[in-house]
Amino acid sequence: MSKTSNFTWSGDGNNPPIVEAHTKARHQVTEEYLKDWIVTLCGNNRAFSKKVTIIDGFCGGGVYRDNETSSLYLGSPFKIISSIEEGLKIVKNTKSKPNYELDAEFIFIDSRKEHIECLQKTLKEYAPETYKQCPDNFKFICNEFENVVDPIIENLRKRNCSSMFILDPTGYNDVSMRSIRNIIALKKSEIIFTFMTEYISRFINLRHGKLKRVHEEILESEGYFDAINLGELGKPEQQGYLRNETLRLFRRQANVPFVFSFALIPNQKIVQYFLVHLASNASAQRVIKSSAWIHNNLWIGKQYGFSMNGMGFKSPDYYEKSLNLFDIEEENRQAAIECLSDFIMPLIHSNEDGILLDLLHQLTMQDNPSTFEHYIQYLLQQRGYGEIEIIREGKATRAQTLRNTDIICKSSQVKLFDLKSFS
Question: Are the C-beta atoms of residues 291 and 25 closer than 8 Å to each other?
Fold first, then answer.
C-alpha cells in the first residue's frame, strides 16, 4: 500500500484493518489465477525445474480483521504464497512430475516501514511452508514501487525467469505507464493490476490543472478519456467507457497485446475497482479468463451489457445468496456460448480455407466474456448443426477434444449452398 492508502497497519500487527467482500473477491481471483499460472508454466514444461519471481508491489501488512467470520484474514502475501504452493502440488500429483522443483522468489514492497514490519511479523507467526523452508527466497523492500522497479526488472532479466507483478496502487501516480511497458517487454512477465475508478475519475477532473504532469508524463494519457461525462459516472455506459478507455490506454501506451478486466462492485451499481490482467501472450489471458469465470457473479448476457463490465463480482449478491445467484451460472454459460456467433462465424466465413482454432481464439478473445472452454462448446455445437467442419491432419474429425492446430472452416454443404446461390 502507498502512503495514501486507506488501509494502515502498525508494526506490531495489532488492530489490523477490516477486509471487505470485494477485497476478498480480488484475492480469490488472484489466488485462483496464480495457482493455474504455476500449473500451466510447470505442467507444460519438459524440464524438471522452473524459476519464477512474484512481486507484490503494494503489499501492506498482510493481515485483516474479518467481521464476517470474527477472525483474522490473511491478505495478498499469504494468498500469493499459498497459491504457488497449491499449484506446485497439482503439478507433482497430477502431471506425473513428483520430483519437480520450483525456484520461487518472493518480493514484497511497501512505502511504509510499519507495514513491512507487520508483514514480517505475521509471516513468522503463521509461517507458510515455503517461508519455513526457504526464508532466503523472501525479500522485503521499504520504498515506493516506482523507485525500485527498474533494478527489479534488470534482476528478472538476469535471472531469466517467469514473473508476476501484483500491483494494487492507491493513487494515479503510483505506477507509471513506462514501468508497465518495461515489465511487459520482458515477455515472460505478467501484471495483475488493480485500479480504483474513483481515483481515475478524480485524475480526469484535474488532468489539465495540477495533475497535468501525471496526465502527460506518468500515465501518458493525452487523447484518452476525452468523452467522459463525470456527472454521469454512476451510469453503466460511463463506467463501460471508463473501462474501455483504460484498457485502450494499456494496450497502446504500454504496448500490452492482451488485456483482461474483472469488475469489483461493492454496491448494486457502481464499479469501485477493475482488476486488470496484462500479458504479452494469448495463453495467459486464456488461463485467467477461466480462473475469473469461477468467481463471476454478474449477468454477462447481451441484455445485461457484458461489453460494459465483462466479468465481475457484486458484493451485495455475495451476502444475499439469493436463488438468482445460483440460477445465473447456467444462464451465463449459455449466454457466453451464444454470443460467440457474432465474433466467430464472420471470421470462419471470411476464410475460405479455414482458420486455425488457436488463431480464431486469439483474434476474438478480447471482444467477449467467453472462456476457451465456451469456444470449444460452441464449435462442437455448430459442427453438430452442420454449419462448420473441423479439419485435423487433412481430414474432417468428429473428435470431442479439440486441438489448437485444428482448422475450423465452413462445412462443405454451406460452401455448396453459397455456390448455388450465385448460379
Answer: no
